[in-house]
Amino acid sequence: MTKNAAHRIISHLKALRLAKGLTQTQLAERIGIQRQAIYDIESGRYLPNTAIGLRLAAILECRVEDIFSLDEPPEAPPITLIGQASPESDTRLALARVRGKLIGFPLTGNNEFREYMLPADGLLLKQEGRFRWLQPQAALEKKILLMGCDPAFEILGGHVARSRGQADLLCRFASSQRALEALSHGHSHIAGTHMHNTGKTEANVSFARRILGDFNGVVIGFSTFEEGLMVAGGNPRNIRGAADLAREDVRLVNREPGAALRSLLNDCLAREGIPPEAVRGFDDQVASHSEGALRVLHGTADAALGLRVIAAAYGLDFVHISVVRCDLVIPGDLMEHQAVKVFLDILQSRAFREEIDNLPGYESSDTGKVIVSC
Question: Nearest 5 degrees, angle CA 257-CA 271-CA 228?
Fold first, then answer.
């Protein structure tokens, strides 16, 4: 007998044997093999050779193909990929279902590893050209996707995970602009944005409406945190504000266009009358808070845009520039999603608020507050 390495053969031997009133021992004796072999065939551990297969069919009065059948993989569901699948190997995917559409995020590069490996919901199989589920599809009905760049989103995800299976929160890092664009395309349930108020208007609301158009939904406060410049421990360049970024001995690492921190920097430079080209590193970009912190930590930049909480996590000093509120943008038709309801209840919980208040540079006075409903 040969081992069924592919595990694609389904054995119907047990049902056929029982229909004939035969025990495993009786059938094995009539075939001339060990009872263990019958057990292994029925459990799918082994596939018999042709001669044994024909003898089984003769005794059971059926065709060989009645005893064994191929476990054909289900047709690959249509998946909207946000990011690139690996061209060289199978791709692990984190999945969410948004309005019936399956959204897949390749777990590659920085999206795969955060000092621990992130679990996948499915696999894109390169050589076989198909998709394989790694968990029951029903689990996606309780999962919601939040895109944004507030580091505390993962903390909220941890609190949601304690809801005894009522909901699951998948957080995906994205700038405020990319998060809202994903929401507008139906690629997420919730977007986080933290634009800066320059007057009496709510910048997050205005920004959301600019990208989403006639937005019908709710904007809810999530957190308030400090933003500024992350600098090396002891602040060896003596950087005190945005004006110092124009000095020849200071190298900045910037964020990408569409990031709220880049908009903050642009506003600060404009108030100081400093043109962007006067800043060394203005066009040197990273795509996350942590990447900027690492650049400063390893001495390839003197300052990076970031949050006090990130600077503290990497042992860096911090130059305060602004306090900003991060809001959650939720479309109206998704407010009745059961997992969204659980999410909002947890957002209001005392335990979550207390944890937010204990983060460096954070406070929760606006957490759970409805900023606007339209």
Answer: 55
One-letter identity of residue 229: L
Taking the C-alpha atoms of residue 323 and residue 337, their distance in angstroms, rounded to an integer, is 32
d(CA 181, CA 213): 11
Element (H, E) at 13: helix 13-19
Q: Considering the chain, what percentage of its residues have pLDDT values greater than 90?
A: 64
Could you tell me how far CA 29 lies from the centroid of its own chain? 55
Indicate the SS3 state at residue 373. strand
What integer is the mean pLDDT of 317-328?
96
The pTM of this model reads 0.71
Mean per-residue pLDDT for 274-294? Answer: 94
Tokens of 226: 């400090």
Residues 6+ apart with CB under 8 A from 143: 95, 96, 97, 167, 168, 169, 170, 339
Residue 332: C-alpha distances to residues 8, 169, 219, 265, 296 (Å): 45, 18, 10, 33, 41
